[in-house]
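Example 4.3 (complexes with small molecules)
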Amino acid sequence: MIILAIESSCDETSVAITDERKILSNIIATQIAEHKLYGGVVPEIASRRHTEAISQVCDEALKQAGITYGDIDAIAVTFAPGLIGALLVGVNFAKGLSYALGVPLIPVHHLRSHIAANYINTPELKPPFMCLTVSGGNTIITEVADYTKFNPIGRTTDDAAGECFDKTARALGLSYPGGVNLDKIATTADTQKYPLPSPHTENEFDFSFSGLKTAVVNLVHNKSQKGEEIDVPVMAATIRQKVCDILIKKTIAAVESHNYKTLVMAGGVSANSELRTRMQAECDKRGIKLYYPPLKYCGDNAAMVGVQGYYEYQSGNVADATLNATATLPINYR
Ligand code: KG4
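Answer. The structure with KG4 bound is encoded below.
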């Protein structure tokens, strides 16, 4: 089944052509260089850049896949959650294509598609499994009972891990997107030099990152007011270690308490080098099989939307021309 998939939930305009789990093309136009000037994503600018880029990105995706519009069986599109103006660009483009080509329109939840990035090149990976999805806007532990059946057991009660990385990186003077740059320059953590708080949550599988974020920002400001230098690579490593401690401890506890033997990581933060290495070591110790996507599928892209779109279509999830974008929506909405 040939799907033309569209992703525009944040600052990447992406169109992919997929055939079940196979990727025929995956074009991404990123806006990072422009948002970098402001230290974060400016929603109004993001919507405008999606509008400008989407037709050309779509043409290029068809060209690289070596197909024409007549070969498309369905259109899949990210419709939630994300920046509302940005999502609306993709949703309306998808509606127009679906109407013009007379093919089904498949709405895809952004976090579900991040999880589906793991199905690319791994024919043996099938639900059920436990999944940690960790990105700029979300941190959630969910049971994936089937391709379109999700049972969240823990989520952040405030900030996402990616938000914590991005804002603490900004306080340290690193450019957007902070998480990637913080990961690159981090050296060795020193928790004596920079002690950071451990958050408490009522539900053992929930997360909280806002206290940690604030603690780092306050520490950096206090040092600067006293005219003291911060050792940025050591501070970066200390933040990274703390975030990884929290993510790993809770995720492994969730996997063990629910008797899973397979763990999947998804989302932009699953690209983090320390998270990958340490989670792998913890899984190896316990005989848990760990999956995480190749780096090129960790961030936002339409290939993962096409793959999840295929399973959504199989489960009967098809939209009509009234499809709207939604800024927030739980992963188990349907
Ligand atoms: O999944 P994603 O591309 O967009 C959302 O759907 O949110 O995730 C973006 C997030 C950003 O917060 C970015 O800083 C973070 O993923 N990120 C990383 C790394 N690469 C991307 N965080 C830590 N270490 C990385 N290597």
